[in-house]
Each structure stands twice: as structure tokens, then as C-alpha cells.
């Protein structure tokens, strides 16, 4: 209990004094996971919508695989990306290992199935509601997807935020591909793992509280920006 | 003889091996209000949807003769349960115009005028889900009317509405009929059918039991099913 209180006090002090190291690793956390969430949304949202309104033979299989990929273990993804980008790997020549770029790549792989799967679910329900109207009004395929994405934007934002949440709290993959290098690839989760290993629980807890605060702030900021909770809507 | 016609020839719709409608052969004139009547499950909704092109015919064909072709190009459909878009009432009504490339400001202006025409007098900025039942139905009417269809389908437009809303809807229908719009609608309400219909198509168990001008149909129905239905017996 004492550790937790000390951790909160330390977290407050770090935040109030805008500790330079804290700001740096928090900014990198935000940059990597937001970047990954944006890229994953650009891929996953249209993919989810497309899967919802198209019928093709392997559709069920694709959706089942997508749902299974939601549970992809980050450590394994990290390992595979590591092997691909290591000096002797097929993409080694790019020299991206232990850089924020490869951290984003690993997280995109982890997040995209979540975004696609959640958005597929939301769009499918909307499509069931809209189907007759859109056919009756002779909306073409592109118009249908645009309408569904726009009218489903609240649910889709939740899909993107779920992806961001998974990314920002993930430690397995970015630890392996980023290497937790101070002033280069250290983010909140890898720093917490490091501090805990050193036995510096108050520092680890302080970083933990900052991480939780960060996740909540990003969610709130997006909800306010998009005015999801306005008026009488639930 | 009227100049344009919709001709159904042996139209049949089967779903999962079961015949929902048909075979039905009938001819619809180019003017007035046709009332599709019949007990639950008679195939009223399916027939309207087939005419609108929402259902694939299992066999038979629908021909659009003469002015019928003009009707075919400009149709609209008001569903029994209004499709509620996740948008404001104004943007829902403007949506068909937006699909056809009308600029947002102009589309909204015309949507507001159309809402006024159907007597939808609420704050149009409201989300459609916040409207009352009658208001939702009028929103759906306005959305169907905004493209000025030549042929309007309505599937039980006043089911679940109270007397006042029903009367308002009927006034709108009479007005657009007078404006030259061809109307094909279904109803359960025999009183409403008497008030509005020019001619009646009576379906029973997916088959055409009777068709004729409304005066003849209501005064002297020929088929035993229609006689029983109009008398208020339960027709199975």
C-alpha cells in the first residue's frame, strides 16, 4: 500500500515538474501507438466495412481468421518482426531494427485485426439497418461504404481507440524490436518493466500512473473532439 | 385504355423452397392509387418489394409498358418500419439528393421545404431516433418524396400510427396523387383502403384472389376470401 502511495506522489511530482526523461518517453509512447493506431485504422476500417457488405466464398474463413488474429501474442509478433528486420533478415538492409519506425510496424500488425474486426461487427449491424434504403436509392458501392463509415463513425472511433489502447499498453513486441534504448526507443511500458526489474517500485508505479492517465486523456480528448457524448445520445 | 402500364406476367418468388408470392399475373394502370390488400403473410410486402426491384423474381417477368418506363426510372419506397439513419432529420431527408451530387447547402434547403410539405414540423436538427413514431414516418415520406418520384410505393404507411397521424399521411397521399404521382401501397386498414383506393389488388396466400376498381371491390367482392376479409372474418 505504501509503495502505491509513494508511487502516486512520485508520479505527481514527475508530472508537475515536467521531468525531461518522463516527457521524452511519454511523447515516444504517444507517437508510436497513435501512429500505429492511425495506420491500422486506415487499413482496418475500410477492410471491416468491405467485409461487412460483400459476399464471397471465403468470407467466413477470413472473418474467423481476423477474429483469431485479435489474440495474436505481441511477443511472437515482436520476434517475427525482429527476425525480418535483423541484419541477416530479408529486410535487414533497411537498418530499421531498434528504431521507432519498426516499433510502429510491429504494433500495426498487432492492432489492425482488432480495428478491422470491431469495425466489421459495427458496420454489419448498420448495413442490416440501411440495406433496403441504400438499394432502393440506388447508392453505388463506393457511396454505400462512405455512408456506412460516416454514419458508423462513433462505433468506428471506438474500434480505433481499442486499437490504440492495445498498442499503448503493449510491452512484448516493442521491447523486442525497439530494445528499450534510453533516449532512443524507451517508452512507458518498457520503462516500467525496466524499473520493476531494478526494484525501483515507486518509479515503476509512477510511470504506470502516467500511462493510465495518458490512455484516459487520449480517449477523452477524442470523444470531446468528436462530441460523441453530446446531448441526449448514449 | 390508359397510356402506361406495369404488367406482371406469372411473377413468382420462392424463398428456401417455399412459394412466398405467385404465380401472379396482373396489369396496373398508369394513374391513381392501387391498394394491395390481404391478410398477414399474403405476400403484400414481397409483391411491393418485387415491383420496386428489391427482390429477385424466381420466375415470370415485370414489363413496363408505355409511360411505365418513366415510372420505372423514378420510383421511391416507404418501408413499413422507417429506416432510421444515424443522422439529423434534415440530413436524412436530404440524403437522396446528396447521393445524386446535390451540394450540401442546397440539399438541406430543399429537405427543409420537403419536410414542411409533409407537415413535419419539428426541430430538424434532431437525430431521427429522437423523433416520435408519426414524425419518423413523415421523415421517411419526405425522404421518399424529395426526388419527386413518378411512382411511390408505401408498405403500410400508417401501421402503428394514431388517427391524427394517419389522417395527415392520407392527406399527403391524396395531394401527391392529385399532383400526378402513381401510388401503389399496402394496408391492413379496410377504412383507409376505402378512403384512398382507386383500385384494389387482393392477395391471399401469395396468389391474386381478386383485382378491380375499388367501388366494385368493396360493394360486391367476387372471391370468397375477399368477402370474408371485408366482413371482418378471420381469413386464414
Describe this structure as you would to a colleague:
- The complex is a heterodimer of chains A (234) and B (236).
- By secondary structure, chain A is mainly alpha-helical.
- Chain A has a domain at 31-178: MetI-like fold, CATH 1.10.3720.10.
- Helices cover 77% and strands 0% of the residues of chain A.
- Chain A has 10 helices and no strands.
- Chain A has helices at 2-16, 20-53, 59-69, 74-85, 100-136, 141-151, 153-168, 172-178, 188-198, 201-226.
- Chain A is globular and about 65 Å long.
- By secondary structure, chain B is α/β, with parallel strands linked by helices.
- Chain B contains 9 helices and 9 strands.
- Chain B has helices spanning 44-52, 68-73, 89-99, 104-117, 133-145, 163-178, 190-196, 214-219, 224-231, and strands at 5-15, 18-28, 33-37, 59-65, 75-78, 151-155, 182-186, 199-204, 207-213.
- Chain B is globular and about 55 Å long.
- At the A-B interface, helix 5 and helix 6 of A face helix 3 of B.
Protein structure class of chain A: mainly alpha
Structural class of chain B: alpha/beta
Poorly predicted regions of chain B: none
What would CATH call the homologous superfamily of the largest domain in chain B? Answer: P-loop containing nucleotide triphosphate hydrolases
Query: What is the typical, i.e. mean, pLDDT of chain B?
Result: 88
Major β-sheet strand ordering of chain B:
5-6-7-3-8-9
Which segments of chain A are poorly predicted (pLDDT under 50) over 5 or more consecutive residues? none
Strand content of chain B: 25-35%
How many H/I helical runs of chain B? 9
Q: What CATH architecture of the domain at 31-178 in chain A would you give?
A: Orthogonal Bundle
Order of helices and strands of chain A: HHHHHHHHHH
Distance between the termini of chain A: 37 Å
Name of the CATH first level of the domain at 31-178 in chain A = Mainly Alpha
What form of chain A results from the Cα inertia axes?
A: globular
**Beta-strand residue fraction of chain A:** under 5%
Amino acid at each position: 500500500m505504501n509503495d502505491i502511495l509513494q508511487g502516486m506522489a512520485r508520479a505527481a511530482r514527475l508530472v508537475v515538474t515536467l521531468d525531461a526523461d518522463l516527457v521524452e518517453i511519454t511523447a515516444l509512447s504517444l507517437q508510436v501507438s497513435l501512429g500505429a493506431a492511425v495506420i491500422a485504422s486506415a487499413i482496418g476500417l475500410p477492410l471491416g466495412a468491405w467485409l461487412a457488405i460483400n459476399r464471397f466464398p471465403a468470407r467466413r474463413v477470413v472473418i474467423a481468421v481476423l477474429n483469431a488474429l485479435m489474440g495474436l501474442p505481441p511477443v511472437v509478433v515482436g520476434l517475427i518482426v525482429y527476425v525480418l528486420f535483423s541484419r541477416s533478415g530479408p529486410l535487414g538492409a533497411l537498418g530499421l531494427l531498434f528504431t521507432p519506425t519498426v516499433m510502429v510496424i510491429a504494433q500495426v500488425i498487432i492492432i489492425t485485426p482488432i480495428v478491422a474486426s470491431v469495425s466489421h461487427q459495427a458496420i454489419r449491424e448498420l448495413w442490416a439497418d440501411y440495406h433496403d434504403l441504400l438499394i432502393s436509392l440506388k447508392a453505388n458501392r463506393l457511396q454505400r461504404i462512405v455512408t456506412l463509415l460516416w454514419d458508423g463513425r462513433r462505433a468506428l472511433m471506438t474500434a480505433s481507440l481499442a486499437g490504440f489502447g492495445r498498442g499503448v499498453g503493449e510491452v512484448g513486441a516493442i521491447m523486442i524490436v525497439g530494445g528499450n534504448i534510453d533516449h532512443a526507443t524507451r517508452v512507458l511500458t518498457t520503462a516500467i518493466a525496466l524499473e520493476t526489474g531494478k526494484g525501483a517500485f515507486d518509479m515503476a508505479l509512477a510511470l504506470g500512473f502516467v500511462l493510465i492517465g495518458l490512455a484516459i486523456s487520449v480517449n477523452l480528448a477524442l470523444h470531446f473532439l468528436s462530441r460523441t457524448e453530446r446531448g441526449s445520445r448514449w | 385504355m390508359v397510356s402506361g402500364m406495369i404488367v406482371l406476367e406469372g411473377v413468382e418468388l420462392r424463398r428456401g423452397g417455399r412459394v412466398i408470392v405467385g404465380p401472379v399475373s396482373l396489369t396496373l394502370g398508369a394513374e391513381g392509387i392501387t391498394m394491395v390488400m390481404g391478410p398477414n403473410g399474403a405476400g403484400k410486402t414481397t409483391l411491393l418489394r418485387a415491383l420496386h426491384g428489391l427482390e429477385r423474381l424466381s420466375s415470370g417477368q415485370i414489363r413496363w409498358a408505355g409511360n411505365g418506363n418513366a415510372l420505372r426510372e423514378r420510383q421511391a419506397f416507404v418501408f413499413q418500419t422507417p429506416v432510421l439513419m444515424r443522422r439529423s432529420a434534415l440530413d436524412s431527408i436530404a440524403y437522396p439528393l446528396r447521393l445524386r451530387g446535390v451540394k450540401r447547402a442546397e440539399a438541406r434547403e430543399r429537405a427543409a421545404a420537403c419536410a414542411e410539405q409533409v407537415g413535419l414540423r419539428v426541430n430538424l436538427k434532431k437525430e431521427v431516433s429522437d423523433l416520435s413514431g408519426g414524425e419518423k414516418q413523415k421523415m421517411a415520406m419526405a425522404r421518399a418524396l424529395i426526388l419527386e418520384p413518378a411512382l411511390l410505393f408505401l408498405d403500410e404507411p400508417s401501421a402503428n400510427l394514431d388517427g391524427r397521424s394517419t389522417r395527415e399521411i392520407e392527406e399527403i397521399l391524396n395531394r401527391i396523387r392529385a399532383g400526378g404521382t402513381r401510388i401503389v401501397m399496402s394496408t391492413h386498414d379496410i377504412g383507409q383502403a376505402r378512403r384512398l383506393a382507386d383500385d384494389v389488388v387482393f392477395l391471399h396466400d401469395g396468389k391474386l384472389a381478386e383485382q378491380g376498381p375499388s367501388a366494385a371491390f368493396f360493394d360486391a367482392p367476387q372471391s370468397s376470401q375477399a368477402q370474408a376479409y371485408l366482413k371482418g372474418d378471420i381469413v386464414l
